[in-house]
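Our preliminary data section would be incomplete without showing what the modeling component actually yields. Below, a chain of 381 amino acids is followed by its predicted structure, encoded as tokens that our downstream tools consume directly.
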Amino acid sequence: MSLSHHAVRQDPFAGLSRFRGEFHSCLTQRADALFELADAALCADGPVRSLVELPLVGKHRRGHGALHDALSAGQVDVARLRRTLAAVPLPRAADGRLVLAADLTCWLRPSAHTSPQRIPCHTYGRGKDQHIPVPGWPYSVICALETGRSSWTAPLDALRLAPGDDAATVTARQMRELVERLITAGQWTDGDPEILVVVDAGYDVPRLTFLLQDLPVQVLGRMRSDRVLRRAVPSREPGVRGRPPRHGGEFVFGDPATWGNHRRADSDHNPSLRHRQCPGMEPASSAADPPFGLDFTLGALPLIEGTVIRLQVEHLPSGATPKPVWLWWSGTDAGETEVDTLWQAFLRRFDIEHTFRLFKQTLGWTCPKIRTPEAATAGPG
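Predicted structure:
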């Protein structure tokens, strides 16, 4: 049920009512049939496994023909829907900032040999200690993270990657457009804490930082444990001649002898967790590094400063040997309180996995065996 906007006030029911009205306005063709179809998917007694079951849900008051007609002829104004999602009340961290998590999830189509634009997608759990690539259509999804004991997230955007697309470049463009929509909607104003973007090790975090450096965002992400970074250039001694160095000393994740000066602290939230903070780190550049999104044929790759945070758990409940987690943050002035906030925000990034599970196993997002990726796109094209 939805109410007129003037009949509701600022409460959760009012916000849901307004969103339902805006969502109906985003449906440009077969609006009523698509709207009831969405209600049926959300109100089904169990997981959605087939389309023919949805007309049996009480919220769907139309016949089977209306369902197929809505899917074949219905259209959604995706741009308006994105603006609508950016304007709804969003969860925030304890300090009031927005925390956005980005990750890839795949619509696997291993048996659709004639389907176009399939990409090998990394999957987990299909073999012991094996990451088996399975053909499918990968999607980049961005969600706003909540705090507290809830694992719900607020999905804000989804974009399919085409063959040849670079995940960091696509995500940076997607994140830029989303942040601009959030600013337009008043979710961020001057003086607010910068938006925190959290990603996993599949992204090149320094490169993502470079591509988003003109936006009010900070980037936090996990790095592989075999990375090598460079320290900031030390201050030049008086009287030293010659060309100044471009980099400082190496920082090898796997070699504690190269860590040098750092700050160590115990976590108040987890007594078995300790973190080390190493500020002033820069990614080590080499000829094998991917381009940062610009033409550097006439110059060197840019230097991206950040802070390395090493998380180490003393013991695991399973008794296995704990491995350190390396985080890279685009800021350089974190205190112990902020470092605590950062690693907790990274752990909350895994809530997005529950969102993917909801999409696929409960709402049946990937159940239809469609042939083309365009059939999965809402709206024209």
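Confidence is low (pLDDT under 50) at residues 1-9, 268-275, 285-298. The longest helix spans residues 167-184. Preliminary results of this kind motivate Aim 1 of the renewal.
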